[in-house]
């Protein structure tokens, strides 16, 4: 099972809403809320539930609007009725007590720091345990019902710094060999939380693909406009970057899966429309998640 990790930003929420309509068999999102206005998040959970998906929600987020309080979000979400989700308790550098959320009964752990003996004991009473993939094999063997995750996206400070292609991960091809029940990643957004984007001197479209000729590793192509030294005319820059992506797809130079996210890019290319950078990211997230799902379904 694939557990993409997303933040509660609107376009990330919209991405998983649309994906939930596709009937993907290997897709359960993990959401770390970042906005204290949780209407969009609750709407997303409703849509996921309607389509048979119960998401995992980190109930003590420490980023965005919740960075000053580890209890504010849980107090907000528990007031909402008629939504179904599994709470994840984040174990991070601010965690003082592991048993703060034992009253939840049915919960999972999202572990974001080193694992000690006390924490290993605590994982025995949780429903599911998300642990970082770089933990030692000795530690991994002691944890049951585990999902391994990592931030594989090689974020650059500037869009102009992205290479034509970067490696991402092959975890999707071997995660089950270590008795894991699933794996996760931060898609094409990365783990670093950024409140808002700056001016677009360069527009980059990220497009994921799995290369069967390179041991089924997943790579990301980075299609960037030329750097003209100004933040003006992002629409023209998007068209330039998108044209490069569509050219590679149509020529079959890169064997992208024809996902819903990619179909939306093709539609935008045909009508010559720039929908805004947020929707560009949404399409890339959708394409990444569906690409991995297509691979997993081919191995079922």
Could you characterize what this model shows?
The chain has nine helices and eleven strands. By secondary structure, the protein is α/β, with parallel strands linked by helices. Helix 1 runs parallel beside helix 9. The protein starts with a strand and ends with a helix.
* Count of individual domains: 2
Q: How would the global form be characterised?
A: globular
| Percent in strands | 15-25%
C-alpha end-to-end distance:
11 Å
Helix content: 25-40%
Q: How many beta-strand elements?
A: 11
Order of helices and strands: EHEHEHEEHEHEEHEEEHHH
Arithmetic mean of pLDDT: 93
Spatial strand sequence of the major β-sheet? 1-2-3-4-5-6-7-9
SS content category:
alpha/beta
Short description:
The chain is α/β, with parallel strands linked by helices and 300 residues long.
Set down the secondary structure blueprint.
Blueprint: E1 5-7, H1 10-20, E2 30-32, H2 39-50, E3 56-58, H3 72-77, E4 86-91, E5 108-111, H4 117-122, E6 129-132, H5 137-141, E7 146-150, E8 165-169, H6 171-174, E9 182-185, E10 204-211, E11 217-224, H7 234-250, H8 260-271, H9 277-299
Parallel strand pairs: 1-2, 2-3, 3-4, 4-5, 5-6, 6-7, 7-9
Antiparallel strand pairs: 8-11, 10-11
Helix pairs in contact: 1-2, 1-9, 8-9
Which key features would you list for this structure?
3-stranded antiparallel beta sheet; globular; 300 residues; 8-stranded parallel beta sheet; 9 helices; alpha/beta
């Amino acid at each position: 099972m694939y557990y993409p990790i997303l933040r509660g930003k609107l376009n990330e929420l919209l991405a998983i809403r649309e994906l939930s309509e596709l009937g993907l068999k290997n897709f359960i999102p993990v959401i770390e809320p970042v906005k204290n206005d949780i209407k969009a998040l609750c709407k997303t959970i409703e849509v996921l539930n309607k389509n048979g998906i119960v998401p995992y929600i980190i109930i003590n987020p420490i980023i965005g609007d919740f960075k000053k309080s580890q209890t504010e979000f849980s107090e907000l979400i528990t007031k909402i009725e008629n939504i179904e989700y599994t709470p994840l308790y984040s174990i991070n550098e601010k965690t003082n007590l592991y048993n703060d959320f034992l009253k939840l009964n049915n919960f999972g752990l999202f572990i974001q720091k080193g694992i000690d003996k006390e924490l290993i004991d605590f994982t025995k009473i949780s429903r599911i345990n998300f642990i970082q993939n770089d933990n030692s094999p000795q530690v991994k063997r002691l944890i049951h019902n585990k999902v391994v995750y990592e931030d594989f996206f090689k974020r650059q400070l500037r869009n102009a710094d992205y290479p034509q292609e970067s490696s991402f991960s092959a975890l999707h091809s071997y995660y089950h060999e270590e008795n894991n029940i699933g794996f996760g990643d931060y898609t094409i957004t990365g783990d670093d939380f950024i409140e808002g984007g700056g001016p677009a001197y360069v527009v980059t479209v990220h497009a994921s693909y799995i290369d069967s000729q390179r041991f089924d590793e997943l790579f990301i192509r980075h299609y960037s406009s030329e750097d003209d030294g100004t933040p003006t005319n992002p629409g023209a820059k998007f068209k330039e970057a998108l044209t490069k992506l569509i050219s590679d797809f149509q020529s079959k130079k890169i064997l992208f899966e024809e996902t819903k996210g990619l179909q939306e890019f093709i539609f935008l290319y045909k009508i010559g429309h720039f929908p805004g950078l947020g929707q560009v990211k949404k399409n890339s997230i959708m394409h990444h998640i569906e690409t991995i799902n297509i691979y997993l379904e081919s191995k079922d």
